[in-house]
Each structure stands twice: as structure tokens, then as C-alpha cells.
């Protein structure tokens, strides 16, 4: 259940509707902390909550674990992969996005992205295995390729991944190897644009770049990656040998636009009306990362969590207004709530527009805000314990290499095999 | 790192030796609580600890993540799957066991066993998916096959699995489904012998059987399972349709006996000398589940955690004695430390020989004992939090369906595909 759909369901509480939630996954994932699973700080179950448990008191909601393959707009039915279908009067599509490789899907096996729990455990396995292989490699040049980590994309996810990998290498793993010094690991953050955190104000970007460099991350700006393979990446015509590459550069929407035959932008997002409905189908809404929403004042609504939540709430309001026979309550308006990103375990940037912070104060603010956003006391306690432990001792508890043989060489995880092994 | 090897390494602290630990996995697994991962009570990272972190201060220990394929006894080298080898003066083999199907390996895809973290997440996924499929199934008879769970084997693991599945169905999942009542799930524990917990004293078995029945578990004694397939099992010539079957009936040792060309028992365990060395090779020890150890007073040393630990400590003592030139310090003697098993979240049996308990007192004693055996304050706090939460609210937090498509039908997970997907 994406956050946007969650807000719609919340907003329809007590409306007397018959709601069916169709989800491919049985858990609601708290996406903003997914990078912490990929970097061994948190366990998978600390940021993923059973959807049924969240909705247990909502007797008006039926949850189906199923995969959608299409929509019959005329018959008003959602088609499922097992041949069944679910009827609707109103349909809300919140199917999110996956990472996109800008026409280079062949890079995916070598540079996994980070959208699902399985993505996170894949990246975690690759990072940990790289140190293990370096420990066993006798050739110094090859050893260095195992100890080189490249993160492609300088947005919040890329910055947070690079900073945490640096912390993991220099703080957590210190003293645990006998032949290598994990502190010598090279972490390179590659951003095609002129600065990291391009959506933040420029002083924030400068601070973040400096904080990354203090953690020992090499920040390479201004050139796109032009090749990715099993041996490394090419940037600005120069080769950078690296056995671990992570993709944090681009997203593409789910195939929902194809299901509907609706107009879509280049990233595959459905270009919706100002009231978030699909053109010609006022009974169908598209929200969150799968929708392309233009702001009445110009520009696009950004694909961030607060915007997804606001869209979810807006749709609930619209449906309630329609029930009361007052369908027109104005276009969706996005209200910026602030941007946050951490750099390692001591620094962060927080920008609320009217005020911004950097440094340790921002880090604590970031931490409290995220614990607040977690659902339920039990998860708050668990995540707080994990973070305080890392803060105090540097030890990260979720350092598991699973779902892959320790001997797995460089077999690429293809889109197909991954879909099978862990969609 | 198995517990037995951990004790040997502990016991050799400060001995001035050069120790190499070769492990296929990067984590030490706390096996006694693995069933709790399989039944959504604990997260994988709560019972698995990074080996390197445990050994970080032991500068005399080098840890290698590698898979052993054989032993060159003459050249005194351990052979690894990547073609490399590691020399030794003394070799300690503690490679454990996997589940065995008594000549029916074709049952494995339909009745997974529980030895590794991946086994646990496989079983967890199957249990949770069974409820999801039942919710979507319209045919009443088929729905019942999704809601029938069969556990084969009435030892501690089988008893603990069956009790916890019953709790999960009747306590945790209550009210979360709209079309089925998870409390109607049928949990059947099948044991070929005359009683559950066959190694415990008979009053304990009787109590456990009664406690299981109070939880709604059907206990079927006295007949072995004669067939297992995708649709169910056959017991005493009668068919029991069930889509979820779990194997808790038998173990087989690792192929270590083959590596050494050493005499082995029917389960593949190396039949060792009274001092735990391999016949003809006093420099090689075999301990834990991969060793067949006869007691000087007759009978076999049982394959339980305390026995593995004692063997590990004994080997460390022997090696130290040899270093001092006093090789002979008597045969290994197993000292029984007591048997424990829980039945659901309110009852347990504890048998120390001189005293035994049942009921809630035993349950709390069991809980404190297991928290004590966990390594490190951080894990103790995390597990205590998880248990108190389950005790107080019935909610289990690790209810994740991962590593498998939600649409995965009944494709069997074969030994081969599993080895690939998650060894």
C-alpha cells in the first residue's frame, strides 16, 4: 500500500463505502528509510508493516494480494493476473514507480536500483560481499575494484546511500578484517548535474557536498555516466573500475498509463487533469509517482512523499464531495512541506522554505521527524533502538548476506530473474 | 559460525594460535529461535549476528566467507569452491546438518525444512500466502486446503512450529480478513512415534500434547507420513489435503564424511573417536551435528545445542593440552543441561532432570533463558521488545512476504533452485 493510497483510505473512513485495496505486496513500505536497509542500519521488518494489520479495524476495506494486469474502462473492472477481475465505480491508481535507466536497461544487472525490500537486500548483499571478496583477493588492483563503490545519482537517495556506505566502511567495519582495511574503501557519488541535491537550495547542496567529502566520499559532478558493466563505469570518457555500482538516478512510472490508454509523459506517468482524474474518465484517479501533475502556477508537482500524501487526501475529499453531490471543489494544490536528507550519521540538511538547518541539529531533527512518521509505537521503539545503537557504538545489526549464494560470482540479476526471485 | 565452532574459538583465546574460520555464511544463526522467524514473531536480523563483529577483537582469527568442497588430508589443506585452498595443522569440522527426507527427496519442494534463514523466510512466505490465497478462493473445499497446515515431526521444532502457527491464526490474524476467519485454520502435527517430544520424559510429552490441543492443534501420533505432494499428505493410508506442509522430522549431516573418506552413520555423520577426532587422523576433529559421538556409558550424544557447545569447548581444551605436550585428557563426556520447548505463547515444558516445570512459569523461564543466550545487549533488547509486544498485543511485526512473487503458484522450490536463490 503506497502512502498516497493509504491517505485516500484514511480519508474515506466512515464514508460508508465498499473499498477494495489490491496490492502486489502484503506490506506497506516506509520508502524514505529504505536506503538504511540497503546499508545494514535497519532490518527489513522495521520499515515494512503488514497492510492487513494497519487496516484491521476498517471493516469497509477488503484487501486482496494480487497483481493487476489491466483495466477494463468500459466494463469498469480491474483485471488480475490470475484471470479474475474486480468491479469498481471509482478507481484510484497509486501504483508508484520503479527505477529507469534512460534507455540503458542493459545496465540494470550491474547497477541495481532501490525501490523495494528485495532491491534493498540485493544492494546490502552486494555491498557486504564486496568487502568479503576484497578480503580474499590477493591481487592489489583487483582488490581495489572490490573496495570501490559507485553511487549514480546525487538526489537524496544517492547522497544518503553514499554517506552511509562511507560510514559503514570507516566506522562499522573497522578492525573486522585481517587482510584489508575497510576504511580504505573508495565511495564515489556521480551526478550529471552541477550539484548534489539539485532540488534543494544551493547553500544546502554546497553543505551536503562538503559533508560528503568530509566523510571521504568523492563527489563527481557535471558528467553523466556513459557506460556501466560488470567491471565498472565510464564517466566523461574515463573508466572507473568498480565491482559495486548502485543506481539512484531515475524513475519510471508503473505501466498504469498503458492499462488505461491514457496520455503519459516520457517517464511513463499518466498526465492527469487538475483534479487528478484521468482525461475522459472522471471516475478514475491517478496519484503519487505514477501521475504527472502540473501545478496551476506552472511546473510539476515533485515526486516526494508529502506530495503523494496530499494527493491521496485530496482524492478522498473529492470522492466525499461527489457523494454529497458537490463534485467541484477546485484543482489539487501542492504545498511544499520541506526537504530533508542525511549525510552519514552526524550531518543532515533540512529545508522548510522559511527556515533551513544543516549539521547535527538537522540530523536530530531528521531522526525525530522520521520516527514520528513511522506507524505505531512498536516500530518507533525498534527503529529508535537501532539508531541509538549505531550512534553510540557504530555497530549495525542488519548485516546479513541472504538470498544469494556466497559464491555467486558476477551473474547479473536480470529484470526477469529478479521479477521471479523476488518481486 | 555454528555454536560448536564458536566455543572452540572462544576456548582458544590467548593460546597464540593462527586460526582461520571458513564459513559459507557471514552470520552466526541462533538456531533455537529460527522457528520464530518462520512464524513471523522475530525478524531475521534479531537472531543472526555478523560473525566478523563477534570476532572483531580476536586478531588471531581470520574469517573467510567461502564454501568448502573437500579436504586434502595428506597435504593438509581445506579445498574451496573457487579453486583456492587453506593449509592447516589442526582441522575442526563443524559443518552441521540439513533436513533429510528418509529417501524421499522428492518431498522437499512441498515440505520445506527449517535449518537456515532462507528456509525460515520461505516457510514464513508460504504460511502468509496460504491465508492470502484462502481469502481469494471462492470454492469452499479448496479454501480449506489453503487453511490446513501440516507439520511433520513432533520434536521440539515441530511442536514449536505447530503451536506458533495456531497462535498466529487465532490470535494475530483475527479480524484482518473479510471473507475467511483465520481462526478456522486447521493445524495438524504428525508424529510417527507414540508421543510428541519423544526425547523428553513422558509426563512432559503428555502435557505438551494437551497444551497443543488446547491451542487447537490436531496431534496425530503413531503413523508415519507415506506421501507428500502439492495437494497434501497421506498418513496411515488416509489423505489429508493441505497446501502448506512443513518438514521437522529428520536431519542429515553435511558431506564432511565424504570429504574425509571417514566412516559415517546412516545420517551421514562422521563416527568419531571418544576424543572427537576422526579415526586415523588425530589432527582432525568433527563436532556438533556433523559428528556421531558415542557416550562412554553407551548411547549417542544427542544433537542439541548444549552438546555442540560442550564438544566445542572440549576440542579447545584438547588443543591447549597438546600445546602443553599433555595430549591425553580423557574422552568427551556429555553432560545433559536440560530440555526446553514452548507451546504457543503461554505454555512451555522445561526439564532439567532433577526438576521439571510446565505451564506459564516454564514459558517465562524459557523466555529468560533464551534472552540470556542471545549475544549482546542490543539483540537482547530487540528480542525482548518483540516478545513483550506479541505477549501484550498478539501483533507480530515480521509478517513479510518476500523473496517470491505473490503470484507464484505452486512451483516447487527444488533443492537446486533454492541453492541458487538463497543458499
What does this structure look like?
The structure is a homodimer of 423-residue chains. In chain A, 33% of the residues lie in helices and 22% in strands. Chain A is an alpha/beta fold and 423 residues long. The first copy, chain A, has 2 domains: 3-24 and 66-99 and 251-323, FAD/NAD(P)-binding domain (3-Layer(bba) Sandwich), CATH 3.50.50; 107-249 and 345-422, FAD/NAD(P)-binding domain (3-Layer(bba) Sandwich), CATH 3.50.50. In chain A, the strands form 9 sheets. The first copy, chain A, has a 4-stranded parallel beta sheet. In chain A, α4 (117-136) packs antiparallel against α5. Chain A is globular. The model of chain A is unreliable at 405-423 (pLDDT under 50). The interface between A and B is large, with 66 and 66 residues.
Amino acid at each position: 500500500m503506497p502512502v498516497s493510497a493509504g491517505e485516500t483510505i484514511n480519508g474515506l473512513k466512515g464514508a460508508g463505502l465498499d473499498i477494495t485495496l489490491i496490492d502486489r505486496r502484503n506490506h506497506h513500505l516506509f520508502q524514505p528509510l529504505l536506503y538504511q536497509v540497503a546499508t545494514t542500519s535497519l532490518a527489513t521488518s522495521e520499515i515494512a508493516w503488514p497492510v492487513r494489520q494497519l487496516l484491521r479495524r476498517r471493516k469497509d476495506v477488503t484487501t486482496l494480494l494480487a497483481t493487476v494486469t489491466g483495466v477494463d474502462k468500459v466494463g469498469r473492472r480491474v483485471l488480475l493476473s490470475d484471470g479474475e477481475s474486480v468491479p469498481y465505480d471509482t478507481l484510484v491508481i497509486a501504483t508508484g514507480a520503479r527505477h529507469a535507466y534512460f534507455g540503458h536497461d542493459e545496465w540494470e544487472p550491474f547497477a541495481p536500483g532501490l525501490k523495494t525490500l528485495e532491491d534493498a537486500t540485493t544492494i546490502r548483499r552486494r555491498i557486504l560481499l564486496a568487502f568479503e571478496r576484497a578480503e580474499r583477493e590477493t591481487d592489489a588492483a583487483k582488490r581495489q575494484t572490490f573496495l570501490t563503490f559507485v553511487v549514480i545519482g546525487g538526489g537524496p537517495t544517492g547522497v544518503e546511500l553514499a554517506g552511509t556506505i562511507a560510514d559503514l566502511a570507516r566506522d562499522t567495519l573497522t578492525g573486522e578484517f585481517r587482510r584489508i582495511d575497510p576504511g580504505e574503501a573508495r565511495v564515489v557519488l556521480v551526478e550529471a548535474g552541477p550539484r548534489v541535491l539539485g532540488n534543494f537550495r544551493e547553500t544546502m547542496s554546497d553543505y551536503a557536498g562538503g559533508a560528503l567529502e568530509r566523510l571521504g566520499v568523492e563527489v563527481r559532478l557535471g558528467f553523466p555516466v556513459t557506460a556501466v558493466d560488470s567491471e565498472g563505469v565510464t564517466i566523461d570518457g574515463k573508466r572507473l573500475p568498480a565491482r559495486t555500482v548502485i543506481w539512484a538516478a531515475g524513475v519510471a512510472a508503473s505501466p498504469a498509463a498503458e492499462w488505461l490508454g491514457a496520455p503519459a509523459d516520457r517517464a511513463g506517468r499518466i498526465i492527469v487533469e487538475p483534479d487528478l482524474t484521468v482525461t475522459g474518465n472522471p471516475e478514475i484517479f491517478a496519484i503519487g509517482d505514477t501521475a504527472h501533475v502540473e501545478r496551476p502556477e506552472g511546473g510539476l508537482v515533485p515526486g516526494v512523499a508529502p506530495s503523494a500524501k496530499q494527493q491521496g487526501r485530496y482524492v478522498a475529499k473529492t470522492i466525499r464531495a461527489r457523494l454529497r453531490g458537490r463534485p467541484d471543489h477546485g484543482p489539487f494544490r501542492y504545498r511544499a512541506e520541506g526537504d530533508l536528507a542525511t549525510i552519514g550519521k552526524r550531518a543532515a540538511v533540512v529545508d522548510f522554505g522559511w527556515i533551513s538547518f544543516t549539521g547535527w541539529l538537522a540530523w536530530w531533527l531528521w531522526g525525530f521527524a522520521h520516527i514520528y512518521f513511522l506507524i505505531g509505537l512498536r516500530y518507533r521503539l525498534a527503529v529508535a533502538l537501532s539508531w541509538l545503537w549505531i550512534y553510540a557504538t557504530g555497530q549495525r545489526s542488519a548485516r546479513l548476506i541472504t538470498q544469494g549464494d556466497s559464491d555467486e560470482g558476477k551473474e547479473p540479476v536480470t529484470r526477469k530473474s529478479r521479477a521471479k526471485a523476488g518481486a
